Amino acid sequence: MNNGPGHARRAALSAFVGTSLEFYDYYVYALASALVLGHVFFPGEKTTVSDIASFGTLAAGFIARPLAGTVFGILGDRWGRKRILTLTVAAMGLATMGVGLLPGYASIGVWAPILLVALRIVQGISVGGEWGGAVLMASEHATAGSKTFAASFAQLGSPAGMLLALLTFRMANAFGLDTFLAWTWRIPFLLGGGIALGCYLLRRQLHETPEFLAQAANVQTPPSSLRALSGEWTRIVYAGAAAVIGTAGFFFMNTFLLSYATRYEHIDRDTILNALFIATFLQLVTQPLAAWTGERVGETRFLLATATACVFLPYPMFLLLHTHDIWLISAGISVTIVTLSAFYAVVAGYMAAAFRPAIRYTAISIAYQTSSSLISGFTPLIGTLIAAHYAGQWLPLAVFFSILAVISIVGVLGLARAGNT
């Protein structure tokens, strides 16, 4: 099988395009949960209660991810990366389009939030199998010395998907608030379903990775199962902890902060969306450079440096947010997002290198998806509860963000101490 530089580049590009569309669908839901889903599916007198219910459905998708990651990981280690990736993107597209077509509470009553949660769980199942396969599709096609950089192209789907989501919501919001709340908020979901179909067709053209084919050809290698992870659980726990700031940090910045800025800081919605757009564009540009740098200076050193910076960055960011100046707000948000995205760019390849190919899909999926479920999925909800309890005070929120960064530092140190396979 051809595994030259040209093929490796095509594999990385395919992983980037696929995860961009997958993350687009996921971020569309996250943005909608901050902007409109509470109004449409959980109407009530108290906006805080509506927000909590809306962010609760966001968290529901994360609850499904550890089990989905485990099942898809085992199947991906048995059947191959390509087959699972085509299934996950098809499921995501159908669920996303379903949200766009779902009637609101005013039309079908309690069935609206019930069906919304069900579709959200399908999204969670899809992402549960997506991330690990995309990372491995890119990294396992790459040559030695460039695997971390190649894996970062799967991670690059996060800012690209976020940019697409922000653009579509900006267009939907251009018709005015009343029209947005009435129907234009559905457009990004419907577009996401159509785009996912194109991604499904693209992924069917991919080749299986050489590393998977090599281990599958070894008849002495037992099929992947939870029993095959014996002796690996310490690494899995550390890997899950290491991923925290790269996942929870984004949901803090891109989902919770959007709601917080408009409600508690009284910042115009377009202003905060513009600031997030600028920050996400910078993330898209700088993330490959971060991965290239991390591979050359040493992944452990790079991850510790960026995670440590994330401990301190939320404090000036909140101070700049309080100025209500679009450029200062953009600067504070951009520096924070670029720093945590630098961490995010490197951590995927770092996690993958810690496990042998026969169990790699299962191990990194369990680590990443369990971390996302227990911490990342509840980050906007926890942030909302903190903001409501400490109304007018941003310091507890900054401390919360710092704690997320410290968890990642502990995970990186533990994974480095455990060593690679």
Automatic annotation (TrEMBL):
Residues 11-420 form the Major facilitator superfamily (MFS) profile domain. Pfam families: Sugar_tr. PROSITE patterns: MFS. Keywords: Cell membrane, Membrane, Transmembrane, Transmembrane helix, Transport. The chain crosses the membrane at residues 26-42, 54-75, 87-108, 114-137, 149-171, 183-202, 236-260, 272-290, 302-321, 327-353, 397-416. The keyword Signal does not apply. Gene3D superfamilies: MFS general substrate transporter like domains. One of its GO terms (molecular function) is transmembrane transporter activity. The keyword Membrane applies. It is found in: Cell membrane. It comes from the Bacteria. It is a multi-pass membrane protein. One of its GO terms (cellular component) is plasma membrane. This is MFS transporter.
